[in-house]
Amino acid sequence: MAYDMPYVHRKGTAVKRYQYLDIARGIGLLLVIISHSCGLSSYLINYYIPLFFVVSGYIYKEGRSYRENIGKKASRLLLPYFGYSAALLAFYALLGRTFSETLRSAGGVLYSRYCLYDTSRSVDNVYLFTVANGAMWYLTAFFVTSLLYHALVDRCLKSRKFFIVSLAVLTAVTMLLADIPVLLPWSLDLACVGTIFMLAGTCLGRAAYFEKKTSPLSFLLVLAAYLLLSFCNPGINMSVREYGKYQAFSVPLFILVGISGSMVCIWIGKLIQDNFVGTFIGYIGKNTIVLLAFHILGLEIFAMIAGKVIDVSSLSGVTFILYHTVRISASVCGCLALGFLLDRVKGVWQRKRKKWKADET
Question: In 10 A of CB 344, how many CB atoms?
Fold first, then answer.
């Protein structure tokens, strides 16, 4: 099922789709999947979660009420989250999970966090996502962030003073929550920093920043800033509230890393938007939710099957790269096929509903 938020700019009756934003999301998602399969350099992944918030903020359009905005977010995020989670719980139960194990996994779904405690402090942690749903924390995190973002964004756009004060408060709250021992449910402790990334995206969108011609110097300067900030502040993992090696004091650096890295990724998306590679990656970016929900399961199934034929742990060099290339490709293609099938089923259901309503009238 595609995450059908339209990346469009409306001018009169004309509608233009921001293909490069789809591509940027696709790049970010591929990096997520690769890192879950075989790991990646922090220089490649420090920004890939903030990227999704920045892109969402970039395409924000005024005109909807708070209730309408949140209603749409709930439909796009929470329905798939709980629906796909139920499917994963049922799948693992069929594989032999006991009722008590399934119940604990269901509790993890309700809490919606990878683990319970700060990973930098806790040795004996409690892991909550145990049915290949480790990436789905983002869906509830984005929903919670949206609750705060939509409460602030219109006022921020109207008042520079309110915008600056909001950024200061959001940063301060993020720093205060950075060192609490427990990771809060539904990523409540990430909502403020997520809102900062969305507001940054909104500012870039209001300036039509990526619609303008980018000078090579601007690209190189932002890329250099991203690399330097990543070097100075290692240890970033937003999903478990790790902002870098300086703990709470890493938050401002993390914000700059996220924004600069997102800008570089979006520029790359714009650079390749007119070729086949860009088109394919853009298609991946349009199917974010189904890939987030099921790519880990796809990776696990492939590893289980491959493990019966080869000794995966002994692979190195070219064979290691080849194995993970095939593994990732199989998982992505399987998820895209599933998404296509779900879209077809959804389309058939919607047509039947329209027909029933027409017959009733």
Answer: 10
- Whole-structure pTM value: 0.92
Q: Which amino acid does the sequence have at 42?
A: S
**φ and ψ at 184, to 5 degrees?**
-75, 150
- In eight-state DSSP terms, residue 272 is T
CB atoms within 10 A of CB 168: 10
Cα 59 to chain centroid distance, Å, stands at: 16
Find residue 236's DSSP bridge partners: 243
Alpha helices in the chain (DSSP H): 19-38, 42-45, 48-58, 66-73, 79-94, 99-111, 137-158, 160-177, 191-206, 216-232, 251-271, 276-285, 288-306, 317-360
Mean pLDDT across the chain: 92
- At residue 16, the pLDDT reads 52
Q: How many CB atoms lie within 10 A of CB 329?
A: 12
Q: Which two tokens stand for residue 85?
A: 């989670």
* Count of positions (residues) in the chain: 361
Q: What is the pLDDT of residue 11?
A: 43
Low-confidence ranges of the chain (pLDDT < 50): 1-15
pLDDT of residue 118: 86
Strand, coil or helix: what is 17?
Answer: strand
Q: Strand 8-11 relative to strand 14-17: parallel, antiparallel, unpaired? A: antiparallel
Question: Which residue carries 């950075």 as its tokens?
Answer: 178
Q: Is 242 helix (H, G, I), strand (E, B) or coil?
A: strand
CA distance from start to end of the chain: 31
CA distance 339 to 347: 12
Note the pLDDT tens digit of each residue in 51-85: 999 999 999 988 899 999 999 999 999 999 999 99
Tell me the C-alpha distance between 168 and 162, whole Å. Answer: 10
* Cα(135)–Cα(81) distance, integer angstroms: 11
User: What are the tokens at 267?
Assistant: 């520029």
CA angle 255/250/227 to nearest 5° reads 60
